Amino acid sequence: MKKEKLKVIIVGAGYMGETHAALYNKMEDVEVYGVVDKNHTKSSDFARKYSCLPFADLKEALACKADFVDICLPTPFHKKSVIESLKSGMDVICEKPISLSVDDAKQMVEASEQYGKKLMIAHVVRFWAEYAKINEMVRTGKVAGIKCLTLSRYGTLPAWSEDNWLLSDKKSGSIIFDLVIHDIDFALSLFGMPNWVFACKSMMNEDYTLYVNAILGYKDVNVLIEAGFAMSGSYPFTAGFRLSTGSISYEYVNKDGRGLVMYSDKIAGEKLEYADCNPYEEELRYFIECLKNNKKPLIGDGYDAIKAVKVAKCLEISANINERVNVI
Q1: Are 266 and 155 in a shared domain?
Q2: What is residue 157's predicted lDDT score, i.e. its pLDDT?
């Protein structure tokens, strides 16, 4: 007997909407049912490509009663779309960050609880094989006594956002919310909330932060994050981390092809064993399995997303005043 597919409505026919749709199309138990975008040409082209229904209005799409909603809109539009979808009886996966405001993030999580529907925030780095491997090793005690962690994420100016909304701090919340949020979320998954933060930034113009250096203040571990789009020409997007306990060190750089490697007195750059994967596919599959088994998503949990926004806001304040800010 053929099993019914879970029907998804994708909100936003841009880069991430396309990324998610292509992955859903590979899944035997998911159907891209509809796409919502105010740009009629984009929604129509998307609908033809993925054999789904085009909608100009979310309310109209929600009336069709699919199984869940995948929100791939610019961050300022997350709150309204998430709450409207939850209220209509839909489970929701929403692109990161959850919002640019702690209060808005709390309202979204509260709506999930009020309407009894699942909400997952797509912090995809949690599903990146190398990050997930280190996370698992820390969680199980295989890596302990970490002294320092450096996280990096940088490249050239993004040119894929509609009307270049990513190049406006007022719209995107700056690269602290666009890029640094990935590494904030990962650091919080390892060490919890920091006591304080400090950040400094370089500006391209009055409305765009080009680069950020950030310190998350913990008692026993040094955590540094650097991120931005200050690189020139054909410089490849680069992301990764370095972590050391003093006696053992681990390193991952996405562009060097070595994977996650380990160093010690007896080991020189040995690659760890782990299964490679498409992190976006793993992320979506995880949410689908949560829906099918009626389980709350623990990765991408709304309360974790609130904490990440809280730290990002503190970093934003610190970068503006060039002073350390306590995380309350």
Answers
A1: yes
A2: 86
